[in-house]
Amino acid sequence: xxxxxxxxxxxxxFNKTEDRLITAQExxxxxVDEFDRREIFDLIxxxxxxxxxxxxxxxxxxxxxxxxxxxxxxxxxxxxTPTIPHCSMATLIGLSIRVKLLRCLPARFKVTVEVTPGTxxxxxSVNKQLADKERVxxxxxxxxxIKVINQCIANRSKG
Amino acid sequence: MSTLELVQTLKKDNGRVWNxxxxxxxxxxxxxxxxxxxxxxxxxxxxxxxxxxxxxxxxRTIREVAWxxxxxxxxxxxxxxxxxxxxxxxxxxxxxxxxxxxxxEVKSVAYSSNGLHLATCSRDKSVWVWEVAGEDEYDCVAVxxxxxxxxxxxxxxxxxxxxxxxxYDNTVKLFKxxxxxxxxxxxxxxHGHESTVWSIDFDATGERIASVxxxxxxxxxxxxxxxxxxxxxxxxxxxxxxxxCTISGHHMRTIYDVTWCPLTGLIATACGDDAIRIFKxxxxxxxxxxxxxxxxxxERAHSQDVNCVSWNPKTPxxxxxxxxxxxxxxxxxxx
Lengths: 159, 335
Description:
The complex is a heterodimer.
Chain A: H1 24-27, H2 37-44, E1 67-70, E2 75-80, H3 90-104, E3 110-115, H4 123-131, H5 133-140, H6 143-153
Parallel strand pairs in A: 2-3
Antiparallel strand pairs in A: 1-2
Helix pairs in contact in A: 3-4, 3-6
Chain B: E1 3-11, E2 17-22, E3 28-33, E4 38-44, E5 47-54, E6 62-67, E7 73-78, E8 83-87, E9 94-99, E10 106-111, E11 117-122, E12 127-134, E13 137-144, E14 151-156, E15 162-167, E16 172-178, E17 183-190, E18 197-202, E19 208-213, E20 218-224, E21 240-247, E22 255-260, E23 267-271, E24 276-281, E25 292-298, E26 306-311, E27 318-323, E28 327-334
Antiparallel strand pairs in B: 1-28, 2-3, 3-4, 4-5, 6-7, 7-8, 8-9, 10-11, 11-12, 12-13, 14-15, 15-16, 16-17, 18-19, 19-20, 20-21, 22-23, 23-24, 24-25, 26-27, 27-28
WD repeats (chain B): 10-41, 55-96, 99-132, 144-176, 190-222, 299-335
Keywords (chain B): Repeat, WD repeat
Organism (chain B): Brassicogethes aeneus (Rape pollen beetle)
């Protein structure tokens, strides 16, 4: 996305976490491997920020500690933290996280994506929009919007 | 102990089924889905089978389908901002009318009880009332801009020309044709829900409304006409509407739909926690503070969100449901 002026010109950039080490037990097909927060984090950490050529992980928009997974209740809750409280991209970022998880996780999961409490001016209205599945469904049929979302969640070459 | 027993599971669609609607004769029904198709189902012996697929009406998700009271017309509301009216005049269902005007997604459509009006509502915050002026002729008689956010659902009073709407602005509104003013007016606004009201339904008399919301509650509203014996104040000779019952603690996620059976008085809800629940009013309770008891729950009625529930208009206890899991289910309530 090209903007004439960046909203947050100088965001804090953080280090990426190391890749997950895969254990022998995890490669054993006979062991039931449930979803954990690290797996959810790995799905969303590389989503591109719509404003900067950086990932959501590098901007600390998503953090492993802000993810909850309950395999038995089929619940995944993700909190995300906009870099600035008036970020106009908050809904788009939330939608990108939601779409990525909708496409990757089994349909049994109820996914909730919300702004980390106290980190955005319009927290309530962003959360309400992201929770409304009818609005999300309609947004995903909007050709221009889905193009932008696909750009955000496209895999970046790791380097 | 009451139960809701599964009679049949139907699956043809490739995606989320948003809505199911019984034909007024109660022998067949229509469904619509995000795959842009409408299906009509009818009984073959003891089982329902898919008889007709209509695919050429809409370019985007079809959100709701509704039959006219005579059963000859089927209206469909779509995210493509149009409403289609289908009929069988030429032997098979064809779309002979396309209603345009909404700026974006049409979310709900319904015929009035006498079939003289059709209403639609949209994310553009408006409710439109159309007069059925003649064969294949619909005239817009009102554009109602009372809601401040998306309008999710509209239903007509079971016998009068009164329209109720539910919205993302957390309210339910009532509209009627004010004969003195010669225009449709917003007569009542029902405040009480703390988040989006997803659906509403009148009871058999039209004197009560059930509403369900993203706030996980089911509310019952009662009409108090002017001069009511309870002494509830009314304004300008308009009835007052009051919430007389809030049912909370049962639904774990957003409640997407409610249906109030005109034959049995049972209320069924469709919930984002995958469950269907049945509520029954306690015999002899105070009408100004009624008690509704949860009499049956099917926990995993579907494998994903339940989007819609609908009681059969002729057979008591026969219920339809549909879900994000692409399935339609037929249920029978047994006391």
